[in-house]
Amino acid sequence: MTQEPARNIGVDLVRATEAAALSAGRWMGLGKREDADHAAAEAMYQALNTLEMDGHIVIGEEGKLGMHSPLDSGQRVGTGEGPEMDVVVDPIEGRNLLALGHPDAIAVAGIAPRGSMWSPAPAVYMEKIVVDRQAADALVPECMDAPAAWTLALVARVKNKEMRDMVAFLLDRPRHQDLIDEIRAAGARVILRSDGDVAGALLAATPGIGVDILMGVGAVPEGVIAACAVKSMGGGMLGRLAPQSDEERAAIEAAGLDTSQILRCHQLVSSDQVFFAATGITSGSLLSGVRYHGRKAETESLMVRCETGTRRVIRAEHLVG
Ligand code: VTB
Fold first, then answer.
1. What span, in angstroms and rounded, lies between the C-alpha atoms of 48 and 285?
2. Pick the CATH number of 9-115+273-319 from 3.30.980.10, 3.40.630.30, 3.30.540.10, 3.10.20.90
């Protein structure tokens, strides 16, 4: 019989993102992305090993550190007892943001029963649209190919907003220039960020926080991590592979993946037994960053559990060495 994850495993998951954030925060603005990542990954790994599960990392640190990490895909985490789970982690989502002291660098982790997370290796990029629970039902697959103005109008209508009140979050990339022009022409406003579309997805999925929609192309791993959060928060998400080079397209075709398929949230993460946690590293509109005061440090985290829709914001004070 397949075991179900214990209800409190989400609280233990927060300990893992807190541990990563507490390590990473020390590196804010120091320009050393790899050193920060190494410290955060090690801290998160130690904390994940206290979770009662047989965890398989399906999205991890591979390739980011230029060396082996205990959080590479394929590695096992947890006590080894308990249910088999897929584990997705990013000890520092927004390494550039952290290195430059910019807002909304976060530590994130998600878990769901083994086999429930979409893993379209070798794909690298995907298109994403994310909205909150109020607009979730309005998000239809047609939004992927429709003019941005059409999708924005759908979302504005269900949120009872004027177009000029709408805010879209996009990564600041040349590939988004036409989309940005379209959104501006529709009369909506835009937040452009250098990195961190998981934070963007969390902002878009959080009602009343000032971001109505995330749009554009970002990395696949970040898309699946975001889907864990969006699904747990009852938001809406669409995803579709969007290869950015001939090489990536060829690899996707060789793997037999379908670049025309539009996936909804429940296809990105199929189980309802999903838990997601995020802890702020640098302060942003989503979460406060880590604050150090001598031997104490404060963190702010978010924990969501899909099955019950519970969303907890956890402020913690830690004794640090
Ligand atoms: C995003 C973002 C990440 O990569 O997915 C983005 O969430 C997409 O890739 O923080 P490109 O940078 O290649 O456009 C990051 O910015 C991390 O590098």
1. 27
2. 3.30.540.10
Closest residue by Cα to atom 12, ligand 1, is: 195
Neighbours of 176 (CB within 10 A): 19
Q: What does the pLDDT look like over 220-265, one tens digit per residue?
A: 999 999 999 999 999 999 999 999 999 999 999 999 999 999 999 9
Q: Domain spans of the chain?
A: 9-115+273-319, 125-268
Give 125-268's CATH code, choosing from 3.90.550.10, 3.90.920.10, 3.40.50.720, 3.40.190.90.
Answer: 3.40.190.90
Ligand 1: nearest atom to the Cα of 219: 5
- DSSP letters, 150-201, are HHHHHHHHHTT--GGG-EEEEE--GGGHHHHHHHHHHT-EEEEESS-HHHHH
pLDDT digits (tens, 9 = 90+) for 166-202: 999 999 999 999 999 999 999 999 999 999 999 999 9
Of all residues in the chain, the percent with pLDDT exceeding 90 is 94
Under DSSP, the state recorded for 71 is T
Quick one: pLDDT band at residue 321, thresholds 50, 70, 90? confident
Ligand 1 interacting residues, C-beta cut-off 6 A: 93-94, 171, 173, 195-198, 218-219, 222
Ligand 1 pocket test: which of 97, 197, 214, 248 has the largest number of ligand atoms within 8 Å of its C-beta? 197
Shortest-distance Cα residue to atom 15 of ligand 1: 195
> How high is the pLDDT of residue 4?
86
Domains 9-115+273-319 and 125-268 share a fold: no
